[in-house]
Design goal:
With about 80 residues, this protein is α/β, with parallel strands linked by helices. Helix content is about 40%, strand content about 15%. The protein is built from 3 helices and 3 strands; from the N terminus they run E-H-E-H-E-H. The chain has helices at about 10-20, 40-45, 65-75; strands at about 1-5, 30-35, 55. The chain has a 3-stranded parallel sheet with strand order 1-2-3, with helices on both faces. Helix 1 (about 10-20) runs parallel beside helix 2. The longest helix is centred in the first third of the chain and has 13 residues, at about 10-20. The model has no long low-confidence stretch (mean pLDDT about 90).
């Protein structure tokens, strides 16, 4: 799963909380952040390790490029964005 985000920590927190509450959790979630602050990284660190979050700083501020970056970082054949 790839989640592209920029400057919306409250929505990301809700999304990650929803993922953490699911019975069948995703194998791994790649968070690609274009906000330029440490707030998103700190937020990701607050979630349990069982959620398997991979935080990355975006190489470009573009949702499409962020999704591509996350897809390239994935080790799965099927990716949800």
């Amino acid at each position: 799963m790839v989640i592209a985000t920029m400057g919306r920590p409250e929505l990301l927190r809700d999304t990650l909380a929803s993922l953490a509450a699911q019975t069948a959790k995703p194998y791994r979630a790649v968070i690609v952040d274009a906000s330029g602050t440490g707030a998103t990284k700190a937020l990701c660190s607050a979630f349990p390790e069982e959620l398997r979050l991979d935080y990355q700083t975006a190489q470009a501020r573009s949702a499409a490029r962020q999704r591509n970056q996350g897809a390239f970082a994935s080790d799965r054949e099927t990716i949800g964005v």
